[in-house]
Amino acid sequence: MPFKIIASQCTQCGACEFECPSVAIEFKGETYVIDPDKCTECKEAFDTQQCVSVCPVPKTCVPA
User: Fold this and answer.
1) CATH of domain 3-63
2) pTM of the predicted structure, to 2 decimals
3) HEC string for the chain
């Protein structure tokens, strides 16, 4: 299941965009969004989702 970013909690820090190994995160409108077609949940690359690990706001990057 791909991840999504809770827009109301996103601080627009951009940390997740640069850590995403599948280049699935981009800034659109006023927040960052995860393209569900590109999100691999970091499987086979990392033990944990990189967006979750770098986000400064808990529970902002969550399963869709």
Assistant:
1) 3.30.70.20
2) 0.90
3) CCEEECCCCCCCCCHHHHHCCCCCEEEECCEEEECCCCCCCCCCCCCCCHHHHHCCCCCCEEEC
